[in-house]
Amino acid sequence: MKGWLSRAVANTALRGEERWNRIARWSRWLPAKPAVDDDKFRGADDPYHRHWREFPDPWRPVDPSDPAVRKRLRDAMEELPQTWKGVVERRDVQDREPAEVSAELGITPEQQRAILNRARAFLRERLAQLLARDTPRERR
Predict the structure, then answer these.
(1) How far apart are CA 129 and CA 106, in angstroms?
(2) Which of 15, 70, 118, 119 supports an S-S bond with 84, CB 3.0-4.6 Å?
(3) Total domain count for the chain?
(4) Burial label, 89 (beta-carbon count in 10 A; 0-12, 13-18, 19+)
(5) What value does the mean pLDDT take over residues 93-120?
(6) What phi-psi label fits residue 65: left (phi over 0), alpha (psi between -120 and 50 degrees) or beta?
(7) Would you say the C-alpha torsion 64, 66, 70, 73 has a positive or negative sign?
(8) Which has more confidence, 137 or 114?
(9) Residue 23: which domain range?
(10) 123 and 76 in contact (C-beta within 8 Å)?
(11) Residue 7 confidence (pLDDT) above 70
């Protein structure tokens, strides 16, 4: 009886916390989306399933203080949803701990990790448009 009661209380408390967590509620309604599009990887019928179809273009060497790079990154940050932007700024710019960021934004660690992965992939894609454009394609 004691074990059942403690599980019931814990589950009720967790359900109550999730009910007030707006992002946890919305995440059930939205389909899961990978950080990188599936069409960039080989299909299930290929012997190298989930390997790159074609390697991403290499980036040219660049100085991080280059104004063009900084502007592209700033513009890409502005395109991010507010929650994604908040996670990236706190984790990558301010170098804060994941638990602290999760508590501050009211999201679970799993949600924060997914948001951070997707936001970083989006920023990489935007930088690749600038940095890989001038590089001739090398065949491997």
Answers:
(1) 33
(2) 119
(3) 2
(4) middle
(5) 92
(6) alpha
(7) negative
(8) 114
(9) 1-31
(10) yes
(11) no
Q: Assess whether 109 and 66 both reside in one domain.
A: yes
33 φ, ψ (degrees, to nearest 5): -130, 130
For 41, phi then psi, to 5°, come to -115, 160
Within a domain: 140: no
Mean pLDDT of the chain: 78
Please report the pLDDT score of residue 140 as a whole number: 40
Transcribe 7-68 into DSSP letters. Answer: HHHHHHHHHHHHHH-HHHHHHHHSPP--SS-GGGB--TTSTTTTSBSSPPPPPPP--TT-HH
Distance CA 58, CA 46 (A): 25
Tokens 């934004």 found at = 105
Return the axis-axis angle of helices 109-131 and 67-79, rounded to nearest 10°.
140
